[in-house]
Design the sequence.
């Protein structure tokens, strides 16, 4: 502040480096100031209640207002990046409050009926309330409500960032109670700043649009703090094809079979509509290598619940087991023997020179039929979700296709390894991001896997008996000598811990360096067999298996030895697509 003492209706400015940063308002009760600007530092403002007519600006630092504030006009509370302001008591009266900027605005106790408009990419929060009833509109950033404000309607209507097709990065969270809520564009979740998971209560119903979404964090098996998010809704629930995104949280690994009631609907009225592409009973791939099945008749009969199910490679019917399947180059046909009911399916998709690239590109927890045509550098997909066809030009002749979920969104990403430069090129499904990384050299064998178990694909190559890994969890590099130059690299999760294990197949012998179970070696197969390791019995562990002249032999970790005649000697067994 300048050397002159302040008077009513002044614009007050507090410099960052002031010697005294504890201030007491000794003006008469309800004295009005026009605006307050704090440049930085760590100020504490106490004393008498005062009125504010022209706004509050916090450029930096951590500031606390213990003196109550009463708004006398529409105004902005703006915070800079990294700045935090805590307001112990705020009365909006009937005035509009715009919370703007990129910092944090926390309100301890709020009253009045003035509307709140959340703008800017920062965070706003209300901890408690005394009769507050104003409507809340969230245009940008995050707004957290831990208070009981059942008369306050909430509208979320953020604008998605350019190129991002998921709901905007704006939304509502908290563990309090709000009124009727509309998720027009943006997201809703639960939990607070200090306890990221929780139960958010909604009085008056919730209405999503197809541009809205529900981010449900899973940190435990029960709803609430240290558990998983839940929306507890009194009133009607309209889903309208909104996006559902369950997200494992804080290292929690949902176990197969666990069920989570993520939206609790009061009374007996049914949920109206469904989440996008998720009809009753549908399975879908979740982030970080998870998969779920949804029901709208969970809980006490009319709640939304999701159950963790197996997420398995080369699973065309979504039952959690790898299916026996071949691609026949002579006629470009795929032949699948589905494990769910033993039925047969055949379809023509591809030509003799195509490379098969099966993967779950649409996130429905079913493997999609797909091929890469080297002469064109084009990928062709037949999506299992809706039986539609699509094509993407990505790569060139000589590239080795290596699709994997590099962004952790539950969908396989188009990717190639270019031997001529030792470079990986990825076209990620989340935001259509392009990524290029030099890792490897000409002559390397690219290998696929998630070796660190973080739910995102790692870059890896096998070179003369040595494995070179670039791990996505911390972008660290590691090398492991395991095998000899003539071995066939067969990475898979043989011990079911979520980490891809280093493994090789050599003339009928398997050598496995399991990340949890340790080293093991055993004979299964003969020289000339094609190794096809995958989870054929659905127990979450890859099984040793080989393909020999149209006969499949598998040593399943739970179901034991099995064999199936399926294919011709020249067929390409689908589980060997990438080894």
Sequence:
């Amino acid at each position: 502040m300048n050397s002159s003492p302040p008077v009513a209706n002044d614009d007050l400015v507090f410099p960052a480096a002031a010697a005294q940063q504890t201030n007491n308002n000794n003006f008469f009760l309800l004295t009005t100031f026009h605006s307050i600007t704090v440049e930085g530092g760590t100020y504490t403002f106490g004393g008498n209640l005062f009125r504010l007519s022209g706004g509050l600006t916090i450029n930096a630092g951590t500031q606390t207002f213990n003196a109550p504030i009463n708004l006398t006009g529409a105004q902005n509370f703006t915070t800079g990046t990294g700045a935090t302001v805590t307001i112990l008591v705020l009365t909006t009266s009937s005035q509009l409050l715009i919370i703007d900027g990129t910092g944090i605005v926390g309100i301890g106790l709020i009253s009045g009926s003035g509307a709140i408009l959340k703008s800017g990419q920062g965070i706003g929060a209300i901890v408690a309330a005394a009769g507050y009833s104003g409507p809340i509109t969230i245009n940008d950033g995050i707004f957290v409500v831990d208070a009981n404000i059942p008369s306050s309607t909430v509208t979320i209507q953020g604008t998605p960032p350019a190129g991002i097709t998921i709901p905007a990065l704006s939304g509502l969270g908290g563990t309090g109670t709000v009124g009727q809520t509309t998720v027009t564009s943006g997201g809703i979740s639960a939990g607070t700043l200090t306890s990221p998971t929780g139960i958010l209560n909604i009085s008056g119903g919730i209405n999503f649009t197809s541009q809205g979404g529900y981010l449900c964090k899973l940190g435990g098996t029960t709803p609430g703090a240290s558990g998983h998010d839940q929306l507890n809704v009194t009133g009607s629930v309209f889903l309208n094809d909104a996006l559902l995104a369950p997200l494992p949280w804080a290292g929690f690994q949902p176990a197969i079979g666990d069920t989570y009631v993520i939206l609790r609907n009061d009374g007996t009225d049914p949920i109206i509509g469904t989440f996008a592409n998720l009809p009753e009973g549908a399975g879908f791939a979740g982030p970080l290598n998870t998969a779920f099945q949804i029901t709208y008749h969970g809980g006490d009969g009319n709640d939304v619940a999701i159950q963790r199910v197996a997420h398995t490679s080369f699973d065309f019917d979504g039952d959690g087991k790898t299916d026996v399947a071949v691609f026949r180059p002579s006629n470009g046909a795929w032949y699948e023997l589905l494990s769910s009911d033993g039925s047969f399916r055949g379809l023509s998709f591809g030509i003799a020179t195509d490379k098969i690239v099966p993967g779950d590109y649409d996130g429905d927890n079913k493997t999609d039929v797909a091929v890469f045509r080297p002469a064109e550098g084009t990928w062709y997909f037949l999506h299992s979700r809706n039986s539609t066809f699509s094509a993407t030009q990505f790569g060139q002749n000589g590239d080795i296709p290596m699709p994997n979920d590099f962004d952790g969104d539950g969908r396989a990403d188009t990717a190639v390894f270019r031997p001529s430069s030792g470079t990986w090129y990825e076209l990620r499904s989340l935001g259509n991001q392009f990524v290029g990384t030099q890792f490897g050299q000409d002559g390397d064998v690219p290998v696929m896997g998630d070796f660190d178990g973080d739910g995102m694909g790692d870059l890896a190559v096998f070179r003369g008996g040595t494995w070179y890994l670039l791990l996505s969890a911390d972008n660290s590099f590691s090398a492991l000598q395991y095998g000899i130059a003539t071995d066939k690299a067969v990475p898979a999760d043989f011990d079911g811990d979520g980490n891809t294990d280093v493994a090789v197949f050599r003339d009928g012998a398997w050598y496995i360096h399991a990340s949890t179970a340790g080293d093991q070696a055993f004979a299964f197969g003969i020289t000339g067999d094609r190794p096809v390791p995958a989870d054929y019995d659905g127990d979450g562990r890859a099984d040793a298996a080989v393909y020999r002249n149209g006969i499949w032999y598998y040593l399943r970790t739970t179901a034991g030895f099995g064999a199936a005649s399926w294919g011709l000697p020249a067929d390409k067994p689908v589980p060997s697509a990438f080894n």
Observations:
- Residues 123 and 142 are 5 Å apart (CA to CA).
- The chain is about 0% helix and 45% strand.
